[in-house]
Amino acid sequence: MALVVQKFGGTSVGSIERIRSVARRCLAAQRRGDDVVVIVSAMSGETNRLLGLAHQLTTVPDAREMDALAATGEQVAAALTALAIQAEGGRARSLLGHQVRIRTDGAFTKARIQAIDGTKIASTVAAGEIAVVAGFQGVSESGDITTLGRGGSDTSAVAIAAAIGADACEIYTDVDGVYTTDPNVCPSATKIDRISFEEMLELASLGAKVLQIRSVEIAMKYGVPIHVRSSFSDAEGTWVTAEDQSLERVVVAGVAYDKSEARVAVIGLTDTPSTAADLFGAIADKNIAVDMIIQGASRGAQDETDITFTIARSDLDRAKPEIEAIARERLGAREVRYDSAIAKVSIVGLGMRSHAGVAAKMFRLLADEGIPIQAISTSEIKISCLVAVKYTELAVRALHDGFGLGERPKT
Ligand code: ADP
Ligand code: ASP
Ligand code: MG
What we know:
Layout: E1 3-8, H1 16-31, E2 35-40, H2 46-57, H3 63-87, E3 92-95, H4 97-100, E4 102-104, E5 113-116, H5 119-126, E6 130-134, E7 137-140, E8 145-147, H6 153-163, E9 168-173, E10 194-196, H7 197-205, H8 213-222, E11 226-230, E12 238-241, E13 254-258, E14 261-270, H9 275-285, E15 290-297, E16 304-312, H10 316-330, E17 335-339, E18 342-348, H11 358-368, E19 375-379, E20 382-388, H12 392-402
Parallel strand pairs: 1-2, 1-9, 2-6, 3-6, 4-7, 9-11, 10-12
Antiparallel strand pairs: 4-5, 7-8, 11-12, 13-18, 14-16, 14-17, 15-16, 18-20, 19-20
The chain binds adenosine-5'-diphosphate, aspartic acid and magnesium ion (MG).
């Protein structure tokens, strides 16, 4: 007998018929003798619909109210799933974030889980009921409803699995595992049987939304194996686990892309030792995270420099006045340019640690397609290039097939 956590994403609970099949799947696991804890996302499209309603009222909505609003999506899905299990003859009870006591910090719309009290879930399961927990939501110290950021139900699931000592955390979604790249963008993408936490962490942070990045961090920290699989079949999916000998040694494990950033180019700054510190200090003071940064000599006067960087597109409106103020007024910039039509494409692989020439090959593959590279960043196991958004799909396919990822045997 095992204690299993099963998480169902938006598409998997996207209609009454699908919720019914989720109920049957949970009951089948229970009938096999397992104790089952289910985590559900909002029905597909619901979170976007709710956020869209708020944006009709105001462009900069209050974050506390946005969380109170967005959390309702998961409340509906949890109650419907519990009802579906009951309708199939089972016993189930829905639990919201504050009922489980999923304690988070107070950072509305991107809260982090601080503690989970597993007793309510444990007593529900001990009573022979299936606990159906609303994903994505928690409660802050002050009792406010918080949400964990887009895709946050993955994190709810893994954190609950860690808190209750589950034997496995199954993430049921609309694809049958983690692929070498987004299968909806690249037809030759192939399913990966096993992938290390480190590689999955990079893929998630570089845009592969199949798992929320924070869920992988928690899984890695607490050693929770994740099984990503399809809610539409019984096929074995992808195991995300610690690195070990059985993992296939590949230079590049996957390709990811991210269209959520914007590029800011600050031209003709007065070049002093503190220019970068002043510019990024002012941006950091507004709690705006910066990703890629390039500082280059300006084509203008000798004591000038240009700095290009990327930030989340969703922060752009908030960041603009700040950047204008510091760059033009304090640091003498001649011009500031903004570009939201960009994408970051990245390759990830543990094997890069010990292989030379991977970056050169990536640049060549992009060059062969005539794709200009606007910025580059690297770490031990990933290389990212910024390109115009219109090249995203072309770049992903060229890199995916160029690194031989389309040739792996289908499993
Ligand atoms: P859910 O609603 O179940 O949480 P998501 O839409 O959040 O599902 O995540 C699944 C989607 O992630 C897939 O439909 C796919 O388009 C996308 N995706 C991006 N990169 C990958 C990848 N490397 N492997 C699998 N899916 C990926
Ligand atoms: N419903 C939330 C979202 O759409 C959380 C999730 O699906 O994981 O982002
Ligand atoms: Mg998701």
